[in-house]
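LAB NOTEBOOK - FOLDING QUEUE
OPERATOR: T.R.
BATCH SIZE: 2
PURPOSE: Compare the predicted structure-token outputs for two unrelated chains run back to back under identical settings.
PRIORITY: normal
REVIEWER: second-year student, initials M.K.

ITEM 1
FIELD SEQUENCE / FIELD STRUCTURE:
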Amino acid sequence: MQKNKKKANLTPLFLILPVVIWLSFFLIAPYGVMFDLSLHDSDDKSFSTYANPIYANYEKFISQPPYPTVLLNSIIYAGISTFIVILICYPFAYFAARGKWGKYILFVVFIPYLAPYLVRIFSWRVILGRSGIVNQFLMFTGITDAPLSWILFSKVSLVIGMVYLFLPVMTIPVYLSLKRIDKFLIEASQDLGAGVWRTFRYVIFPLSKPGLLVGFLLTFVPLTLEFLTPALLGGTDTGLLMGDVIFTYFTTGQNKPVAASISYVMMAATVILMFMVIRSAGIQKVFGGQGRN
């Protein structure tokens, strides 16, 4: 009897052991190596000596140019793109959650995202190019006489690409949050004389805020460190972004300690932002709880 109890107590440990081993080798160990690398002297290409002081690379990122300017530039692009994503996704998620054909509408929207990442990015290069659909439409309607060369490889194309790629990332949590709102609360608000706007302002929007904040977190943070989209759709006028700096330092720049320190600072900021969102939004409200339809 005691042997059976011991086996029962050890069963959960054996079940989680593969996960612990996997995370240790492929998550914790790489993070540890990168943290150690961030403490090394950036001028020593053999990475055999530590920086003096030990936090020199972090201090360099925070105080020395061009890093603060690059960080601000990344935040601006991420903020603009996230704001546009919210403006597009919130009305769509609302009608999908309240409409009869909501699930089918979501399925149709997600079809393009079955294509590989690079295919979707390059499709925008075709659409926004000199002979693309946008320029052809502008010339056909007489708005312009010649193709506009500034649309592609510009700030406009960069924001369009970033918004397009993260539309479903914002849509899912907002849709789930709106879907779980009890419809009787909306009916009660209307019965008490509240119009459409007051019902939205005092009932729907506050109850959907957890999904909106989670969607903001899942959209804004990756956009801040986006690399491939600026490389393929951005131009010289977009300026450097954090993803560009990290990639360059890890590859051609051969300044891995600084790149590692930048990555850790951004990761720490991400963790702090994540806990702030969880604390304020109550993430369990997005994925848990019961709603009436």
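ITEM 2
FIELD SEQUENCE / FIELD STRUCTURE:
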Amino acid sequence: MGLGVSKNVSKAFDCFRKAAEKGNPNAANNLAYMYEHGIGVKSNYEIAMKWYRKAADQGFPFAESNLGIMYETGRGVMIDYKEALKWYSKAASQGNAFAQYKLGRIYERGLAVKKDLIEAYSWYWLSAQHGDKGAQESMTRLKTVLTEEQINKAIKHASDLKKDIN
């Protein structure tokens, strides 16, 4: 059910499409999500990418994060960890907790960057400040391999990063 109205996926799709075509980044992101997941329309990653990019090009952090996912997983594009890193970084710099978590994973795994557990912990810490459970679990895991000094260095670095987040 919708909020106060009956759920109508077809009507939602039409509303998002019209608003997206007028340049609304939130609507473009929602429309892209519907195409990506086949909600009310046949799944089409290429069209999803088009709408995510339109929203991301306007600085919409959820779309930037979603583009990161598409590049990381190869949905509609070739897997490209550098592009994923770029889009996650843009979203993370705007305070997007999911993108911050994903940056932590990229640094932990060394995808398109040199593996750096301190940098990973820093991004997990930032994400965990928003309550992200995955980030909290990742921090717990990294605490088994990092020294107390490294953890303190990571938290200081995260505090410095936080100053630059919009």
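REVIEWER COMMENT (ITEM 2): Residues 46 and 76 are 5 Å apart (CA to CA).
FOLLOW-UP: none requested
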